[in-house]
Amino acid sequence: MVAKTQFGLEEILAKELSDLGATNVETHNRAVSFEGDKALMYKANLYCRTALKILVPIEKFKARNERDLYEEVRRIDWEQYMDVDGTLAVDGILKSEYFNHSQYIGLKTKDAIVDQFRDKYGKRPDVDVVQPSIRLNLHINKDDCTLALDSSNESLHRRGYRGESTIAPLNEVTAAGLVLLSGWDGKGTFMDPMCGSGTILIEAALFAKNIPPNMLRKRFGFESWKNFDAKLWKQIKEEAQANIIESEAIFIGSDSVFKVIEIARENVTRAGLDEDIKLSNKRFEDTKPPEGGGTVIMNPPYGERLQVEELNDFYKMIGDKLKKDFKGFNVWIISSSKEAMKKVGLQASKRMLLFNGALECKYHCFSIYDGTRDPRKM
Ligand SMILES: C[S@@+](CC[C@H](N)C(=O)[O-])C[C@H]1O[C@@H](n2cnc3c(N)ncnc32)[C@H](O)[C@@H]1O
Question: Would you say residue 271 has pLDDT above 90?
């Protein structure tokens, strides 16, 4: 199988898959390949915090033009995977000079499948891009074509706890990646003092309570497949439910915008984490963390709406506040603003390259010491 992910999260995802029992786990660019049975495929969809899709390759062949592609796809016995009354969708991903449009290769693939059914039954399956019986993923690299069944259907970042909103939140997979990359052990104080819609806090709490990230999701692609094993799936979900634990961690979130905190509260409620996550409408400047240290992960504004001067001052304020009030904390900051990050005025102990959507970002770790220890000598 192939699990797709975001740049920078491959190693973390490989570990998640190995922990679930996957074998022959190998990392690639934005993907991890692995082996396992049907139960593992179901579990990977339910449990992997940093996977976007779990693909199951079914055929590999060579093609240099649409005609060859059509013939190769038509050669496959599609009745193994769907019935004439079923529906399908095809996603095309193209890295090849032999073909022009990813949409067009998707169409050609669909034509080959529906023509096979029409020849046999005099009628054809329909296209359904929302909830098809099978969603196919056609990947063409030069003349190497791989056809895979998409066992997730909708991207796995759609956990089921987020409502519609106008603010641009962090992708759930990115947020989970930030939590796992930080190496946080799920204990003690966990804060996001610029929490927006609460994504980082929710992903952190799901992790600390051993709740699979996709426990709330209504549907996965494999549930519409011909070989769907409802009993096995029920068993896997029951086992996951039984393994949920109480967390002793304290989750504190705040944001300077009232409306945003209301959205965060709705998301936290939908995620069933009202008892765990405390939210308040407060500026970072006015935040007082509890004694005893802990972990902070924050995603401050990158400056889309601010002048450079203002942004630099804002990041300087973050650094000053951290030095003054966050002693004993490990503070992780993700930002795309290289210049502004320098104004934080702290030496990062770790720096990782990640993406927030298309934006290249750095994820920095700052250990705020209590003044008696010089971090440069640690
Ligand atoms: C990039 S967004 C965070 C998005 C969040 N990670 C999510 O998933 O929704 C930055 C947030 O910082 C908040 N913010 C800006 N200035 C602030 C300040 N001085 N104190 C606290 N929050 C602030 C904004 O209201 C915004 O919600």
Answer: yes
pLDDT at 305: 67
Classify domain 2-150 by CATH architecture: 2-Layer Sandwich (3.30)
Residue from 165, 192, 194 to probe ligand 1 pocket by mutation (most atoms less than 8 Å from CB): 194
Q: Do 2-150 and 172-210+242-372 agree at the fold level?
A: no
Domain ranges of the chain: 2-150, 172-210+242-372
Beta strands in the chain (DSSP E): 2-4, 23-28, 31-35, 53-62, 87-95, 126-127, 134-141, 144-150, 189-192, 250-255, 277-281, 294-298, 329-335, 350-356, 359-367
Which residue would you say has higher pLDDT here, 163 or 238? 238
**Ligand 1 contact via 255 beta carbon (within 6 Å):** yes
Q: Is the Cβ atom of 283 under 6 angstroms away from ligand 1?
A: yes
Rounded distance from Cα 262 to ligand 1 centre (Å): 13
239, two tokens:
């086992």
Cβ of residue 200 lying under 6 Å from some atom of ligand 1: yes
pTM for the predicted model, two decimal places = 0.95
Give residue 308's pLDDT. 72
Evaluate whether 297 touches 179 at the Cβ level (below 8 Å).
Answer: yes
Determine if ligand 1 sits within 6 Å of the CB of residue 260: yes
- pLDDT top residue among 148 and 310: 148
Question: Given this model, what pLDDT does residue 371 score?
Answer: 58
If you average pLDDT over every residue of the chain, what do you get?
94
Q: What is the CATH number of domain 172-210+242-372?
A: 3.40.50.150
